[in-house]
Amino acid sequence: MKSRILTGAVSILLFLCLSVPVVAQEGEVFIHDPSTITLCDGKYYTFGTGGGGLISNDGWIWRRGAERPGGGVAPDVIHIGDRYYVTYAKGGGGLGGGHASNVYVMWTKTLDPESPDFGFKDEIIVASSDGEEDCDAIDSAFLLDPTDGRLWLTYGTYFGFIRIVELDPKTGKRIPGNQAVNIAIDCEATAMMYRDGWYYLLGTHGTCCDGPNSTYNIRVGRSKKVTGPYVDNMGIPMLKGGGKLVAAANGPLIGAGHFGLLDLGDGVQKFSCHYEADLRKSGLSVLSIQPLLWKDGWPVGGENFREGTYQILSERSGYVLELVVDFVRMPRTTRWFRRQNDEPVKPVPPQTLDDVVNEWPAGKIDVRMGDFMVRPHQKWTITPVDSVGGYPGSPFFKITISGTDRALAATADLEVVTVPAFTGDPEQLWRIDQLIDGTYRIMPKVVPNTKEAYALMAVGARTPTLAKFDPESDNSRWNFKMQ
User: Fold this and answer.
1) CB atoms within 10 A of CB 205
2) Domain ranges of the chain
3) Residues 122-139, buried b or exposed e (16+ Cβ, 10 A)?
């Protein structure tokens, strides 16, 4: 939540982005300053400024209904043991009350307001600002250090320093005698995470609270110590305004802010944020979930998978997924490797579906992996499917041979085939997650006759199958080449 607002007219060029197919969440997605998305009893929760929040059964379709007392701004949530701690702030932000503010922590045993165990307890103040010092105590966020179990809280805005304090993970209270440490300036809505010996401080730069005119963007620095100093990729300290870009405006989505890590395991990480304005949805602030990638030790905001026509390539071999059909040859001249001096050069039309489809069987057709030749039996159109739910950040997709309704499907024998027509059965719905290295995991929503989760795998160089996902193996990784 920001005290500064940069005024000015939004360029009409922004509206040209409305045709860009950027994936956003579905349902009641309107929220500002969302807390880190938290899983509780099989449902996803996030809270926002002003009280209340959103609930989702699958991480894709959201509805109102999350509850928290206290109102205030920019909450965050963390699950430790049998408690869900919630932090938020009252006052500050320059919203008529200057920069005097308090940061609160409270806890509940569940986030489900329908549960008999629901109810927030022990609300306490863990940080304050008096309106005169170089800090505004709002925008608080948790980090539970995986190396030693210590609990930390960052807070602050553009008005002065970002600070970090230590809390007791058993009570949520501030450790007695613990002094706040200044760790950054020129940002707000901070969050922290740990990876491979580094602590990462993510802060929101730019201006907020001005709809499509907002310039919010998420930046990061890192440190070997939780209390800093945090430095960006160019060696600029965050105490001097540094920060490497992680996420910014994307097509019709303007002003990315309030990073929250959503680690789904097996090499799949995503992050939540809000966009200050979705130009497709009245310019309102909306929730977004996107892939989080890692490059050279730095987090990078990825993009949710977009519909289109692709070749599906195995990371292991580079061969592409294709129908098991007879190869239809393209015509060629007898002198294909050289040209007579007076022979004209002219385009050769690519092979089309009409050239080959009558040679294909009418029933189910198996799939394999073959040499990459950009032929019709190697082109797959991937399209989101409405009204079947989804998973964090994305809907389910159907995968069909381009120009046909022939659909990829999982079988009870842990194989993959194509069926003559897409029917919407769950074994024909596919989840596509980008992994932290930029490759993809492809999973059917359901494998018939089992509740186990399986992923598309390469057996050797040329045989696709379904098996348990192995995040350490290239057999489990796929790439998409758009046509």
Assistant:
1) 19
2) 12-301, 308-482
3) eeeebbbbebeeebbbbb
Cα distances (angstroms) measured from residue 202 to each of 302, 370, 458: 16, 43, 37
Task: Write down the pLDDT at residue 346.
Answer: 83
Give yes or no for a contact between 288 and 273, defined as CB atoms under 8 angstroms apart.
yes
Low-confidence ranges of the chain (pLDDT < 70): 1-24, 94-97, 333-336
pLDDT at residue 25, as a whole number? 87
Distances (CA, A) of 411 to 84, 287, 480: 40, 35, 23
Residue type, 479: N
Query: What is the separation, in whole angstroms, between the first and last Cα of the chain?
Result: 42
Phi/psi for 19 (5° steps) reads -85, -10
**Of 361, 404, 392, 294, nearest in space to 46 by CA:** 392
Q: What span, in angstroms and rounded, lies between the C-alpha atoms of 213 and 4? A: 12
Determine the residue type at 403. G
Closest CA to 447 of 432, 428, 424: 428
Pairing state between β 26-27 and 61-66: parallel
Per-residue pLDDT tens over the stretch 82-128: 999 999 999 877 655 678 999 999 999 999 999 999 999 999 999 99
Which pair of tokens denotes residue 304? 């949710």
SS3 call for 292: strand
Q: How far apart are CA 86 and CA 267, in angstroms?
A: 27
Domain 308-482 bears CATH identifier 2.80.10.50: yes
Query: Measured between alpha carbons, how far is 134 from 310 in angstroms, rounded to an integer?
Result: 53
Cα within 13 Å of Cα(449), Cβ side: 6
How long a stretch of residues is the chain?
483
Tell me, what amino acid is at 221? G
Alpha-carbon span 210 to 208, nearest angstrom:
6
- Give the model confidence (pLDDT) of 400-434 as tens digits: 999 999 999 999 999 999 999 999 999 999 999 99
The CA-based angle 477-365-403, given to 5 degrees, is 80
Indicate the pTM of the whole model.
0.91
Tell me which DSSP letter residue 461 carries. T
CA dihedral 380, 385, 388, 390 (to 10 degrees): 70
Q: Are 218 and 247 in contact (CB under 8 A)?
A: yes
Among 435, 445, 446, which Cα is nearest to 470's? 435
Residue 219, token pair as written in the block: 């930046």
Superfamily of domain 12-301: Glycosyl hydrolase domain; family 43 (2.115.10.20)
Three state DSSP letters for 318-348: CCEEEECCCCCCCCCCCCCCCCCCCCCCCCC
Which tokens is 364 given? 């189910």
* Cα-to-chain-centroid distance, residue 265: 13
